[in-house]
Amino acid sequence: MFRLLALIHKEFLALLKDPKSRFVIVGPPIIQLLVFGYAATFDVTDVPLAVYNQSSGEASRDLVSRFEGSRNFRRVATITHDDQIAPMVDGRVALVVLHIGSTFSQDLHRKGRAKVQVILDGRDSNTALVTLGYARKIVGDFNVKWATDHGLGAAPAHLEARSWFNPNQQSRWFFVPGIVGLLTLVVTMLVTALSVAREREQGTFDQLLVTPYRPWEILVGKATPGFMIGIFEATVIITAAVFWFRVPLVGSLLTLYVGVVLFVFAAIGVGLMISSLAVTQQQALLGAFLFLVPAIILSGFSTPIANMPPAVQAITYANPLRYFLIVLRGVFLEGAPIRLLWHQLWPMAAIAAITLTSAAWLFRRRMS
Amino acid sequence: MTADDRIALTFRGVTKSFRTRRQAVMAIKDLNVEIRLGKITGLIGPDGAGKTTLMRLATGLLRCDSGTVTVLGFDAARQALQIQGRVGYMPQRFGLYEDLTVQENLDLYADLQGVPVQARKTRYNELIHMTGMARFTKRLAGKLSGGMKQKLGLACTLVHPPRLLLLDEPTVGVDPVSRRELWEIVDRFVREEGTTVLLSTAYLDEAERCDRVLMLDQGELIGQGPPEQFCEPMTGRTFQIRSADEKNRDVLERLSGRPDVVDAVIQGDAVRLVLADGTPLSIDRLLPGENRAALIPVPPRFEDGFIDTLRQRRHDQAGTPLPSALQEDRRIQAESSGTAISVRNVQRAFGDFYAVKNVSFDVGRGEIFGLLGANGAGKTTLFRMLCGLLPASDGKLQVAGIDVRRTAAAARARIGYMSQKFSLYGSLSVANNLKFFSSAYGLTGRRRQHRIRWATEQFDLQPVLDDGSGELPLGYKQRLALACALMHEPEILFLDEPTSGVDPLARREFWHRINGLASTGVTVLVTTHFMEEAEYCDRMAIMMAGEVLALGTPPEIKQLARSNEHPQPSMEEAFIHLIESKDEEA
Predict the structure, then answer these.
(1) Looking at chain B, which residue has its C-alpha nearest residue A19?
(2) If you classify domain A47-149 with CATH, what class do you get?
(3) Which of B384, B412, B425 has the CB atom closest to A211's CB atom?
(4) Which of A130, A313, B95, B489 has its CA 20 to 30 A from that of B21?
């Protein structure tokens, strides 16, 4: 037991005394926390808006000022001719052109209905869709106001939307819990994947192999720093999520940590598998990223798995991050109890069991 | 022709220092040197003497802090490009592209150095013929043996005929046969093309082949001249002692550490010693109580002069006398004879290639057993199998009575291992390395404390205890590696080229320790490329192409090579003879 502790102690020293590996533990988490915490968002604000108002009535001015007053739009240009529209959008000056025809006010007064044209830059389809939603809402509000003011009576059915768990639909609430999974994965993978390769490169692996340590002891020695650092990293980010980004943590910490532990085990398993196969640190790093990039894309971190083609969806079942993200968002936002998350927890345990066993097997095979 | 035309390289008042994290290190101090055109100049000195720095200054890759370096009439600071077009430089680790074939490597270097296409064919033919690589042009460079890689590196350096050739320890880790071939190539170039060569080496017999020698120590020039010049002051001070009663190793132990003995090494069946100046020679004073020993004067050699110069500079004695602690610990059945290592019909296949074929031998307890062979002979494979780092494909391997193939972990607890790279955790301090390896071998509590203290004192590690072990000078790294390997007082010590790249003084010190260990009953299995070190072995095996070619004591091995031409072959001659006669058979 003392021997094993000495080995773990050595692994920690080797990791923390090396400036490069120290950076791996500290650098990526800070950068990614900032990038995803602040930069990654689905919320669309300050959409550049060009107004082409040919109508001179009060109604059209009211509609335009509703757009201007929204924090989603920012008026950047005023258009007076048809041929000005295309250059506006082509040159990315405006993302949206609000076109109110010359008969708008007249039509409204006379017929009780009028047309408004919204031209969108559809190159980023997601943003265009979100922007269109905002425009619809403004026009809808305008309609209701107009109808009541002019005694037309409200529409028979009225949609009252309330989104649960994230009432203001802030995408930060969606992203930040995901970062816990993302960063824990990146750091754990790097720590474990590089550890054996580093020793192989420096020739110390042979020196370690001629000591009486058995393969499983070396494996435990290599896994422990990854485990502890993974848990530590997760804790730091959970803390930052709650106290810095103010994302509510509704559920129980215990449930959350059951998920964290299982997930870190799965990540260590993959990391050690890469480690036992890689001969140089370069190979290990490549291997780690070969796993990391698809693991993140196919996790539902930013794009919903439900939108993926069925074949790709099938692949995501092998991805531990997929399950962990559901656990994270579940515990953070919904306060989901452990029994509701059971179907996420056991696959992670299974993946951990499989990867750790194969890492041990590969290790043994490589050693002998 | 003025005198200056005959100088290829001039250093005038050159100083160069490096900054490490903690302090500035003076690599070269106020150096004034001239290197003559068309000659071979040898550069020798212990580790950290500044040999590599000097070479790199001469290529214009480094700039000196002060002074001027002139190469072939160009100033190295301002005209580095002109110099680099005329100089061939082969660093210690030559940059061969391992995933390219031999031919592709040659092509690449020819392209890089702008060799005209029409001139290439004849040049390639010459080089390939000279290096004996005609059969291997299609082989990947990464698949070549160490010696072949060096030869290919040299060929690549020579693709564009350089006026000045700088070789930084070209023969480190290279077996005697390849070493001789490398020298033949260099000699030929000097003879036929008038190339000037500056070559650094750790092999002192190679210094004797140079026209002139520069001796460096701690960045200073401590001597220069033709090699014979260093031998002269040693005349009358070099002797051999043959003792009828005592083993050479024991004689050596008694002699080293005495103030009147400058140097003592085992050479053949005698102990060769160099006496301090003015010592009256009498066997009684050297070995009191020994009456059946003879003191025979022998001619001095270059190495004697080198060691003497260095020792004088260091005010050092021959071999730091070891504290008695080495003997204090349990004498591991010094008297008991028996088998420590038993190898029976061992084979190892990689695919359908047999790296080790049907090898059998025994090593007795307390024996120093040498495993020798050319690069790629299979000795590393055999060595790794014995340490349990590689499973055998077939056969029986017993180490300390334990079957390595079945219970490797149990066997590993009883062996110590030191590799040629002195594999230690570079980011850990010396103290942490000692702590880790002592715990790794299951030492705890007071025993662990005791052993760590023992290692610190024994290997003089106190001053560097808190330093990162990756930044230690090579000599210290070697000591620390040996200390770590000895933590658990192993019965058997495996040493894989333990003195590769280490200077002669550190090598002597190292062998002194190993002798001490062997005398306490520790079995030592060692691989080496230094043939004079083979003399320290009680018995040895010479391997070739996976088989044991010869097995026996050093005199027995030399006996095999005795002929009319070579009535008294040296170990190196014997080795080359054995390898070549086997080659002719095949």
Answers:
(1) B427
(2) alpha beta
(3) B412
(4) B95
